[in-house]
Each structure stands twice: as structure tokens, then as C-alpha cells.
Amino acid sequence: MTWAERLQSVFVAGAALAGLGVGLMTPLEASGEHLVIPALLVMLIAVFVQLDASHLKDVGKAKGLVAISLALNYAFTPLLAWALGLGLLGEQPDLRIGLLLLLVTPCTDWYLVFTAMARGHAGIATALLPINLVLQLLLLPVYVMLLGGEAAMVETATLLEAVGLMLLVPLVAAFALRWISTRAKGAQWRDEHVGRWANRIVMPLLCLAVFAMFAWQAPVVAESGTEMLLLLPPLLAFFIILPLVSTGIARLLRLSGPQRVTLTMVTTARNSPIALGIAVAAFPDRPLIAVALVLGPLIELPILAVLSQVIRHREKDAPADDVPATNSEQ
């Protein structure tokens, strides 16, 4: 893990504070509106261009892990998100929708880094990535309309348009870029040049989008600072409950050590960049929804870093009969 990856939450927090300062002290805040979606679109293309569908063959090596991860991510987690929002944010509809958007979107990028740090199964973790991406594209509008209630006051067509813009468009553009670069220069050149370029610009573009959003909505954020603190209890509850549940189920199923690690990471990490893009596109007049999504990674990334180290040491110290060998570890 590079020093830049270790400091992601610091960079995002710094971009938010800088944008807030610019928005409050200068007349430039209106310009931020025109930067947010373009920056997020290019960032998502850079994320998706690094996807490699060849890893899907690893799914067959761990069918039990894949099945339970899908059940946790697309059945248990949405219900947990709905319950946390209703129970702890009942009087804050915008924060509740922001929480829902964040928690029902499994991560499709940085969880791979933390899985590797915790000595999980990199092949299976990578194979789950495109599966989670496609399921998000299909199910996110359903979750918002079914679980958002009256707080999700947006037309279905508007929500589908936002999902299409922020998920389908960059996905198609990324696969086109992969195909063109592979045909022109070969797979090795694509990975060494296009993949490396894409990896390097993701964090700067996310910071640019966060900076622009906070500059654009600085007055709203300043007026609602106390309300934002209400997000801490449900977020912390989520990032405590999911690792405990996934670890417990993994042990009941007697998954191998690397598979236990992979299940924990793939069900705990969330996809705040995609959720942020959809929030900005679908709810442009409700900035608190998008602002809530910026707070997610500020809490999530440090927790994932600590969790990866805790799991790594626990698995290292586990007795041999507690970590049975499987073909998926080969």
C-alpha cells in the first residue's frame, strides 16, 4: 500500500475543508457546480478501466464465499441500512438517503488494497468486483425507491437517468478504452500505461470533486454542521456490525483463512465515489445527501486500515486446524 493510499481519508478531508473555505470566503462557490459531475465521471472511467473480467474464473473456486457475500451485500446490508437510518436518522430525511446510498453500494476499488494487506484471496476478491458492479447498476434504483420511503422524493426516470449517467456511461467508456488500447498496443502496454495512468488520477479527481462540491454548497454545509454529526452513530454501527457478522458466518461455514478475510472486506467496504456521483445527479437540490456521502470514507478508510491489520494478526495466530487448506488458496 503506497503512502498516498494510506492517506486517502486525509486527502479527502483536506479537500472538503479547502472547498468549504473557498466557498465561504470567495464568490467562486457557484463554479463548483460545473466541476463535480465531470470530475466524478472521469474518475469512474479511470476506476472501471482497471477492471479485468478474466478474474471471473476464480468465482468457481469459492462458490460458498461468493453466495454468502452476495446475500450479505444485497439482502442483509440494505435492510440494516434501512433500519439504522430509520432508527437513528428518523428526523433527517436527506441524511437518511445519503446513508442508504452509501451502505447499499459495495466497494469496487479500494477494498482490494485492504484485502491484500490482510492477506485475503486476491483472485476471488477481484473476481467479485465486476459482479458487484453490475448488481449495483441493477439494484440501486430498487433500493432507493423501496427503502427510501417518502424521503426519496425523486421520479423513477430521474433516478434511472442518474444511475445510467454515473455507472453505465463510464463503464461503457472504460471498456471501450480497454478494447481500443488492447487492439492498438496489446494487453501488456494497456496495463503498463493506461492502467497506471488510471490508477494515479483516481484520488486527485475524487479530491477535486469533493473540493468543488463543498465550495458549491459551503453555506448549506456551514448551516448544517451539527446535523452532520448525527451520521456518526449509524456509520460506526455499520462498520462494527458487518465485520462481526461476516466473520461469524465465515467461521460457521469453516471457510479458509484467506476466504474469511476476503468475505469480511468485500462486505464491509463501501463505494462512496459511485454513490456520491448518483447523489449529485439524482438529487441536485438536496446537497446534504451528497455531503453525507463525503463523510463516509473519512470514517470508513481508517476503520478498514485498522480492520485489515487486526484480521491479519488474528489469521496469522490462528491454529492450523482453524484455517483448513482449500483449492482456492492455490
Automatic annotation (TrEMBL):
Record flagged with keyword Nucleotide-binding: no
Family: Belongs to the arsenical resistance-3 (ACR3) (TC 2.A.59) family.
Principal localisation: membrane
Organism listed in the record: Nesterenkonia halotolerans
PANTHER family tied to this protein: ARSENICAL-RESISTANCE PROTEIN 3, ARSENITE EFFLUX TRANSPORTER
Transmembrane segments annotated in the record for this chain: 35-53, 65-89, 95-114, 126-146, 158-180, 201-222, 228-249, 261-282, 288-307
Compartments, as annotated in UniProt: Cell membrane
One protein family per Pfam: SBF
Membrane topology, record value: Multi-pass membrane protein
Name of the protein in its database record: ACR3 family arsenite efflux pump ArsB
Organism superkingdom: Bacteria
Gene3D superfamilies per record: 1.20.1530.20
Keywords assigned by UniProt, alphabetized: Cell membrane, Membrane, Transmembrane, Transmembrane helix, Transport
InterPro entries in alphabetical order: Arsenical-R_Acr3, BilAc:Na_symport/Acr3, Na+/solute_symporter_sf
